[in-house]
Amino acid sequence: MRANWNLVVDKILTHANDEDLSVLFQLLLTEEERSAVSGRLQVFQTLLAGEMSQRQIATEHQVSIATITRCSNYLKNMPPSQRAKVRKLILD
Asked: Is the separation of the CB atoms in 52 and 72 below 8 Å?
């Protein structure tokens, strides 16, 4: 079975309320996966805010330095226009 990410995105887009999305994500993701996604979002938000060191982020959000490094490298390698879009999506 080949993964179809567009199917996932379509399902998410068709469920606009919090309760439906919560049920959908509980179905699709384990507790560990939901925690990892949440942690990654917090890391991206904190990196974009630029107010903490990687060690402070690791302590504050209880994520590994490796996760922070991957997120940081992803942001550094992204085109400026995409980085601006990401900033708007997760900081506004």
From this structure: no
Q: What is the pLDDT of residues 31-88, one digit of tens each?
A: 999 999 999 999 999 999 999 999 999 999 999 999 999 999 999 999 999 999 999 9
How many other C-beta atoms are found inside a 10 Å radius of the C-beta of residue 10? Answer: 10
Rounded to an integer, what distance in angstroms lies between the CA atom of residue 89 and that of residue 80?
Answer: 14
Distance between CA atoms of residues 5 and 10, nearest Å: 9
Q: Is the pTM of this model over 0.85?
A: no
End-to-end CA distance of the chain: 37
* DSSP string covering 18-39: HHHHHHHHHHHS-HHHHHHHHH
Residue for token pair 């302590």: 59
Max Cα–Cα distance, the chain, nearest Å:
43
Q: Are 39 and 62 in contact (CB under 8 A)?
A: yes
